[in-house]
């Protein structure tokens, strides 16, 4: 991914939901202007969520997700429905695609109830409008004298639109209505830019080892560099073994040193005490999550006992290296610190258990590949079930005894 690409975790997510054979995939293809999803007259052609990152005017960068039918049955169908429900956690705006020749059904009503319960803005797209007769409510206004219309088409509101993926009817109107549904931007923190002034120097420590992607920096590093540059500050990128000499010859105290959490111990030893130090992962805990929750969660390491289960959650899927931070290093550091025989469970990508009660601690990655809505769901789930949740960088800093130093310059104070 290039520096100018919008990461998936920063894109507006639009989910298309509905029953099998309602024409979701055809509508997605019509909205995107691409053959994104396979379409067929066979029910249940879409078996897994299909994602497409694109620029969709007038919305801008979006992530389109075409989901399997919510009414799928059988063992495999249950898995598809579960995938669909996972997508709901990420969805900023939903489109319920309904077969206009059938109208709303019980599965459709169930989805509408979920949208409302989760405060997801939505539109109902009555697809296959080209198959309706002349007396049907194509304008979205049901005829008072037609009882059946009242049954299958609820009173027309701003959330309903008759469309046709086949003829293109009202597809442009659907996109405009989607744009109007997008929540007004909230005032949110930047990764680091809100703590910088023009002319500041920031030193970034980025190890280049077996786990580093060949030919590029990892996404958190890319995003941090971009945010620094947008603040009219200067980013200086070094490897951990070059840090000491770089600081000695810089000629100016850096505003921050930001490091990969894996080399916290060495970097902390090389950075003077009066220079603020933190990590990419901690910045993401502040940006995508709740830094206070993560700091409080790290302290749960003190209460771990033999046999306790710890969940380690990655927001993305990637090839595991022999010394992977999530599956190897973090479990090793936790065991060494607690001197306990701990059990570990690992999840990746969209997988995250609804029941966290078996776990005494959840350690989550920085979530650069997850959107804020999904992370909000995970944080609230942990809080509701009274399970401590922390972040990789926060936990590593805690285990190495440097957490107060690593968060104090982020306008958060914790006890030593």
Give the termini separation: 39 Å
Question: What is the CATH architecture descriptor of the largest domain?
Answer: 3-Layer(aba) Sandwich
Number of strands: 14
Under CATH at level 1, the class of the largest domain stands as: Alpha Beta
Poorly predicted sequence stretches spanning 5 or more consecutive residues:
37-46, 139-151
CATH topology assignment of the largest domain: Rossmann fold
Give a written overview of the molecule.
With 416 residues, the chain is α/β, with parallel strands linked by helices. The protein folds into two domains: 8-181, Rossmann fold (3-Layer(aba) Sandwich); 191-416, Rossmann fold (3-Layer(aba) Sandwich). 33% of the residues lie in helices and 17% in strands. The chain has 14 helices and 14 strands. The strands form three sheets. A six-stranded mixed β-sheet has the order 2-3-1-4-5-6, with helices on both faces. A four-stranded parallel β-sheet has the order 8-7-9-10, with helices on both faces. The protein has a four-stranded parallel β-sheet with strand order 12-11-13-14. The longest helix has 17 residues, at 74-90. Residues 37-46 and 139-151 have low confidence and may be disordered.
